[in-house]
Amino acid sequence: MKDxxxxxxxxxxxxxxxxxxxxxxxxxxNKTLGLLFFNSSLRTxxxxxxxxxxxxxxxxxxxxxxxxxALEMEDGTVMNGDKVEHVKEAAAVIGQYCDIIGxxxxxxxxxxxxxxxxxxxxKFVQYAGVPILSLESATRHPLQSLADxxxxxxxxxxxxxxxxxxxxxxxxxxxxxxPNSFAEWMNRSEDIDFVITHPEGYELAxxxxxxxxxTYNQREAFEGADFIYAKNWSSYRDYGQILSKDLDWTVNAExxxxxxxxxxxxxxxxxxxxxxxxxxxxxxxxxxxxEAGNRVCAAQAVLxxxxxxxLYA
Length: 313
Ligand code: AN0
Ligand code: CP
What we know:
With 313 residues, the protein is α/β, with parallel strands linked by helices. 39% of the residues lie in helices and 14% in strands. The site of phosphoric acid mono(formamide)ester has 10 residues, from helix 2. The site of phosphoric acid mono(formamide)ester (CP) has 10 residues, from helix 2.
């Protein structure tokens, strides 16, 4: 987000590219985007590929943790264990093949300091020698948040909509990257009344909460809301821990009834009847598919800027 000079200009550019996806189909000609996945993905993988292809780029994709050599991240280690190759060489080599490198690397959820230092992304920035694009790192998922903002811009019916980020239950421990980024982007948007609601112990890091209103009372948060953005995350305080699986936090029709006919949003993949009931996600107010569709124009707007920056560097 800090690389974006003007959020609303970027959103408008994404909306323009949604209307005219091939308007810049020469911009990426003869440029190669490499997409590296240390973790699973459906939307990010396909939408970023499609966005790059719309710009005329070539794309190469690798599931690095499955198909690549196990990477050593620490400097100065005697590599007599499982790690076959150091990131210093691996990143530099991939940089020889690619003009831009996208990386998905989730939080470990074991060592908070390490995760929040964004080791993997920074090592690639340090050694690849080409621009790096986050496809969800340990602490952030910016391409998701941009698509979310585009979706809100498309659907809002008020100058200053009320947007709720609500925690919801999930059986596995998930990273804070999606809620962190969502909060970061919402806080930066002036014309959004932003509220975060979660059970006690699920406070996000202060730098992401910013000036958002935070309440433990989900029903109170939902009152008069225009957008309900649901997401599970594990605890930041008790790092990586699941403190609650309380289905009382599931987004259901009764709670949606407290809102001002709010749209339901989720980044997907979503666990039905844990995060949200079938009734809500299958209702006309659910915009999760449109939201996922907007991942293409969001990624395309970002790639367009990266290509332009390279052209004029
Ligand atoms: C991931 C997460 O919560 O960060 C990816 C979401 C886009 N979700 C899961 O692992 C289920
Ligand atoms: N929302 C999202 O990033 O989905 P994937 O994990 O499938 O890429």
